[in-house]
Amino acid sequence: QTVVTQEPSLSVSPGGTVTLTCGLSFGSVSTSYDPSWYQQPPGQPPRTLIHSTNIRSSGVPDRFSGSILGNKAALTITGAQADDESHYYCVLFLGYAGVVFGGGTTLTVL
Amino acid sequence: QVQLQESGPGLVKPSGTLSLTCAVSGGSISSSNWWSWVRQPPGKGLEWIGEVYHSGDTNYNPSLKGRVTMSVDKSKNHFSLNLTSVTAADTAVYYCATRRGAFHYWGQGTLITVSS
Hints:
The complex is a heterodimer. By secondary structure, chain A is mainly beta. Helix content of chain A is about 0%, strand content about 50%. Chain A contains no helices and eleven strands. In chain A, the strands form two sheets. In chain A, strands 2, 4, 5, 6, 9, 10 and 11 form a seven-stranded mixed sheet that branches. Chain A has a four-stranded antiparallel sheet with strand order 1-3-8-7, with no helix packed on it. Chain A is globular. By secondary structure, chain B is mainly β. Helices cover about 0% and strands about 55% of the residues of chain B. Chain B is built from no helices and eleven strands. Chain B has strands at about 5, 10, 20-25, 35-40, 45-50, 60, 70-75, 80-85, 90-100, 100-105, 110-115. In chain B, a hairpin with a 5-residue loop joins strand 5 (about 45-50) and strand 6. The relative contact order of chain B is 0.33. The interface of A and B includes residues 45, 57, 91 and 93 of A.
C-alpha cells in the first residue's frame, strides 16, 4: 500500500519559520509526482496553497513556499502568523495509484 | 471563477447506495479539468475517491474500486458519484473539486451519514 507521509503535528512561534514535509513510504518524492499543498481550517473545505511543487495559487501570501528538500516535498512558512494555525495536506500524483493525500500535519502557532 | 456545490441525501442506510451530484457554475464541465470527489471522515484526513473527465474517462481510488462509479452530465453541467454497499466507514464529508494537476477549486462539502 502506497503511503504518503507527513509530520502529524508541528509548532512554530509567531514570526518564525517552519517546514512541513511530504514523503513516500517506498522512495523519494520528485517533481514528477506533481506535489501540491492544501490548508484546511477546522470545519472548512481545503484551500489550495501550492501546486506543481512550488507555484503559489492565486491570492496565497508569499510567506508560503514549496520545494523539494532532499527526498521529500516541502512547504515552508516564513514569518508565521496566528491564522496559519491549521491542518495542512500534501498530495502526490502517483499514476498507478492515482491521487494520494498525505495524512496531514496539524500546525500550531504559539 | 469556477464554483462547485454538492447535493445529496444526508443519510444513507447501510448496504445502500450513496449518490451525490456536484453542480458546476462559472465554467463548463467540458473544460480540461478532471472532476473529482474527495472525502473526509469525522476527525480524520482527506481521501481521494476518484475523478471523471468530460469524455467519460474515469480514475478511481484502488481501495474503492468495484463500489464507485462517476459520470458527467453535460446538459446539466454537473457530475455525479455513486458509491454502493455503504457501511458506517463511509460516513464522511464529501467534497467535489476540480483537478488539473493539482486540485484548484473545491465545493463546501456535504456530510453523508451511513446509519439505519
